[in-house]
Amino acid sequence: MHRGGGGSFAVPWPGAGQRGPAPAEFLTGPGQAFHEFYARNGFDYPGAPTSANERFTTPHDSAHVLSGYDTSLQGELLVSTFTAGMHPDEPITGHILPVIVSWHLGIEVAKFAGSSTGSLDPRKFWVAWERGDETAGDTLGPTWDFWGLTEQPLAEVRRAMAVPALDPADAADGVYPDWYEPTA
Question: What residue spans define the domains of the chain?
Fold first, then answer.
C-alpha cells in the first residue's frame, strides 16, 4: 500500500490519476529517469488516489534522480542532506534533523516514515552536503521547472546544474528493512 494525501498540483501531470506505463513525454532525459525511478519503487503517479502530494514529491524525487541516491533509509538521509546543501531555506530543521532523528537515532518523527538506527555514515553525509552545495539549482526552489527539463538528456541537466558525479563509494547502502516501504 502506498500512503499519501493525494495532493493537488500546479500543472497537469500527464496521465494523472493513472498508474502504469509512462506517458510519451517521459521517454527521454530526466522524464524517463523520473519514470524509471517511480516504476522501480512502485510509486503511483501524482494525481492517483494513493499518491502523495505532488508539490513535495516531484521536487523531492527530482533530487533523487539528479543526485543518484536511492530510496533506502540511508538514501533518504543522503538525498535530504543533498537537498539541504542546495536549498537555503531551513536546511537543518527542514531536511537534516528529521532524517537523522528518524533513521539514525530511531525516534519516530512521522508515523508513515517509521524509525530505525544507524543510517548515518558521516563521510557520505558530508559528501552529500558538498554535492548539494555545489549544485547550481534547487529542485525545491520557486524557479525549478521540472516540465521544462523532462526531454533534455539527464547528463546535460546534471552538467548545466553542476551536479557533482556520485562516486559509487558514496552511494547509499541500499538496505531496505523488512518493515520499510518507500513512499512518493
Answer: 41-170
Report the SS3 class of residue 32: helix
What type of residue sits at position 54?
E
Torsion of CA 150, 151, 154, 156, to 10 degrees: -120
Q: In this structure, are residues 63 and 144 in contact, taking their beta carbons and an 8 Å threshold? A: no
What's this model's pTM, rounded to 2 decimal places?
Answer: 0.83
CA–CA gap between residue 161 and residue 58 (Å, rounded) = 17
Instruction: Using alpha carbons, select from 52, 62, 41 the residue that is nearest to residue 4.
Output: 52
> Residue 164 class from Cβ within 10 Å (0-12 exposed, 13-18 middle, 19+ buried)?
middle
Write the DSSP assignment of 138-178 as a string of letters. -TTSTT--HHHHTTS-HHHHHHHTT-----GGGS------T
Q: Residues 114-143: pLDDT tens digits?
A: 889 999 999 999 999 999 999 999 999 998
CB-side neighbour CA atoms (13 Å) of 51: 25
Per-residue exposure over 79-115, b if at least 16 CB sit within 10 Å of its own CB, e if not: bbbbbbbbbeeebeeebbbbbbebbbeeeeeeeebbb
pLDDT at 176 over 70: yes
